[in-house]
Amino acid sequence: xxxxxxxxxxxxxxxxxxxxxxxxxxxxxxxxxxxxxxxxxxxxxxxxxxxxxxxxxxxxxxxxxxxxxxxxxxxxxxxxxxxxxxxxxxxxxxxxxxxxxxxxxxxxxxxxxxxxxxxxxxxxxxxxxxxxxxxxxxxxxxxxxxxxxxxxxxxxxxxxxxxxxxxxxxxxxxxxxxxxxxxxxxxxxxxxxxxxxxxxxxxxxxxxxxxxxxxxxxxxxxxxxxxxxxxxxxxxxxxxxxxxxxxxxxxxxxxxxxxxxxxxxxxxxxxxxxxxxxxxxxxxxxxxxxxxxxxxxxxxxxxxxxxxxxxxxxxxxxxxxxxxxxxxxxxxxxxxxxxxxxxxxxxxxxxxxxxxxxxxxxxxxxxxxxxxxxxxxxxxxxxxxxxxxxxxxxxxxxxxxxxxxxxxxxxxx
Length: 413
Fold this sequence. Notes:
The chain is 11% helix and 38% strand. With 413 residues, it is mostly beta strands.
């Protein structure tokens, strides 16, 4: 391809995205209660080939709010989406720091996470996210039980297995990723019910790998399947497996980094009882994976919950509580992605209801929409033209960036 042809292709990509964003100016958003209206504040800025940033104002039920949008053209061979994270599941860092470290040109914050353990004195908050996560095709973690999640009430019919991701064909999709796994001893297998999660289901066994990090695993045995604030369990046990054999056991979940190639199995209630029966030197096989409801393989994925499917807001979305929000929309059959964050400056932080988020995504051309963590976590970053690193484009409502566990990164070649 000649330089002139390459410049022409870039102009066409940018024009396509700018045209799509330009349809917002003066558009009415219908279907929310009450309706909102959008007012454009410019034609947008090309961050990179296939990536355009824009901000605009919305008049919603709680008043005027400002939205920041990154439109990403996945038909461009120069653009891809991936998981931003600090390198460990139980770890947090400001989004701009994650994006700079991974050389992303833009991004938004991701999943809800274990932000506090005030209800469990003496137990450290892990900072780990609620839902499943995949980075560069590698499974990092599975979802906590529904009753253990942080964040707004889920829409009816949804659960913590819900993900936004990009599948092997390069298209963005909404899906569900369920953990499938087995712990096998003496030819007998029992289900593995957790992978690098801050909370395990009652009576279960979960696996922790070097991807977890060094944070204590004690939180895994606190709460119940229906009540996050329930007391920590008293019947617990963990074993460490290296090279397929048990090397140690402990009555309480431990902490500290897990060696590469090792697996720590944590059990609670009936799961703990099964682990207590293991002895040092015994052979143990641990197998696991995330299975998509669509049976597709994913390059990257992260959790949240759906708000828009088939071009229609999900039934039962909250229409009362307005707040600063982050979300992602899918358009053009998964070939275009819209990263959406509400501004947290005092003039705008009344924000949107979840129902209004769904309508806002639809007005941008999305047929599928997915809610991510909001409030003080809502952050959108992008490089300015000629800059070597990203800068924060919205105003985080805490007044400064909050450390978060993951996000959606935009990468270019």
